[in-house]
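Saturday, quiet lab. Running sequence design on the structure tokens for the scaffold JK sent over.
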């Protein structure tokens, strides 16, 4: 009996290690691939519509491949799909080296392959993460993964200026770390083997569910507002925008970890509501005092803290819990879509957004963020109320025990 418990505990630790390695590796690789594309765009001197097309293809293929991967999950096991995803990422990283001369058509092909390689296995990787965590610790591990990712990504900043061979080898080496995760525990989980034969819910059925629509609407509004306001922030802040975009991920990584812990204690919905509200305040302050250095630093702090927390909750937690932690690949494919579509929207509307008067633009952003709170007010809390009460009761009993020991 004792040996069985030890074995189960060992497998649980391996599951957590695999989940953390795969997700941190995959999320960081997304930004590494973008940096590779940045490098090729700069070296080829692309600008205007040609530059926009390169990034457009990357984000579109990243989103579409997530849907393809969630559908393929019905045909093959999750373990096999994730292995194919990791190997494809390694091959996509090396592919640019095999091209003798790179011009626009070649960059477009590379961009499509990199985007497809990112999205294909991400829903399955996220679904695996949901299966190996519980309501009580999912926020903690989600925050940990996001913090690791945000701290790792700046290390690869040199990719933007290094030569293509160095870029490709760095990307392939990093992606290979995900492949090593399978040597930690070579056998797939029993749940994974049994789940292959189950019928998956359709996308239309998911989109008809009220809780999903409420969270999805708020998430969609946040992504579009945040991305379409980014060009205005860069234009307004000038050189200070470098501080915002370099310090933001570091602050966001720490805030995502703290938010993850709080998610397990007080619930996901309260954290989301708080972040939406103070993010709206940040835009309102920028709208009232766009040229004040105080409002710039206020925006830097609030944007970094709230975006780190919201990305962590919406990308890693919410969709798996709305799926009741069972076969959540299609939930994640749909839930990820606004993140990529917002980048597409930013590329398309940037020339027009820059023509808008800044005070009006930031005031509208604040207004729409406050509107996004409305569907959240009607959305259910995904952390069961029973778990919150149990934690509060446990903490109360522990405090009472300490007080009793102190006076006896």
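Result came back. Writing it out in full:
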């Amino acid at each position: 009996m004792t040996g069985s418990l030890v074995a189960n505990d060992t497998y649980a630790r391996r599951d957590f290690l695999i989940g953390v390695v795969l997700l941190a590796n995959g999320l960081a690789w997304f930004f590494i691939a973008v940096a590779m594309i940045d490098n090729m765009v700069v070296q080829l001197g692309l600008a205007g519509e040609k530059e926009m097309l390169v990034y457009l293809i990357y984000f579109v293929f990243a989103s579409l491949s997530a849907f393809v991967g969630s559908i393929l999950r019905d045909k093959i096991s999750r373990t096999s799909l994730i292995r194919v995803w990791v190997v494809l990422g390694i091959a996509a990283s090396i592919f640019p080296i095999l091209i003798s001369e790179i011009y626009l058509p070649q960059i477009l092909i590379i961009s499509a392959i990199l985007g497809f390689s990112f999205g294909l296995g991400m829903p399955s990787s996220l679904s695996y993460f949901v299966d190996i965590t519980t309501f009580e610790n999912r926020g903690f591990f989600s925050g940990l993964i996001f913090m690791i990712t945000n701290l790792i990504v700046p290390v690869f900043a040199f990719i933007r200026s290094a030569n293509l061979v160095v870029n490709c080898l760095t990307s392939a080496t990093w992606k290979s770390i995900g492949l090593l995760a399978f040597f930690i525990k070579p056998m797939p989980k029993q749940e994974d083997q049994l789940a292959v034969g189950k019928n998956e819910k359709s996308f239309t059925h998911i989109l008809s569910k009220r809780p999903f629509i409420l969270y999805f609407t708020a998430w969609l509004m946040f992504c579009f507002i945040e991305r379409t306001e980014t060009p205005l922030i860069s234009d307004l802040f000038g050189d200070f925008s470098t501080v915002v975009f370099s310090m933001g991920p570091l602050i966001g990584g720490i805030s995502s970890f703290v938010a993850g812990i709080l998610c397990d204690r007080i619930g996901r919905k309260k954290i989301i509501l708080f972040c939406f509200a103070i993010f709206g305040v940040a835009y309102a302050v920028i709208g009232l005092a766009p040229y004040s250095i105080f409002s710039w630093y206020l925006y830097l702090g609030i944007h970094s803290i709230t975006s780190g927390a919201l990305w962590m909750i919406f990308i890693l937690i919410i969709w798996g819990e709305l799926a009741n932690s069972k076969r959540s690949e299609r939930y994640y494919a749909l839930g990820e879509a606004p993140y990529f579509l917002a980048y597409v929207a930013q590329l398309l509307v940037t020339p027009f957004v820059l023509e808008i008067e800044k005070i009006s633009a930031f005031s509208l952003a604040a207004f729409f963020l406050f509107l996004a709170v409305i569907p959240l007010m009607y959305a259910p809390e995904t952390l069961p109320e029973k778990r919150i009460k149990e934690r509060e009761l446990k903490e109360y009993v522990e405090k009472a025990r300490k007080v009793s020991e102190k006076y006896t």
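Notes for JK: The chain has a mean pLDDT of 84. The two ends are 38 Å apart (CA to CA). Ask whether to fix the surface positions before the next round.
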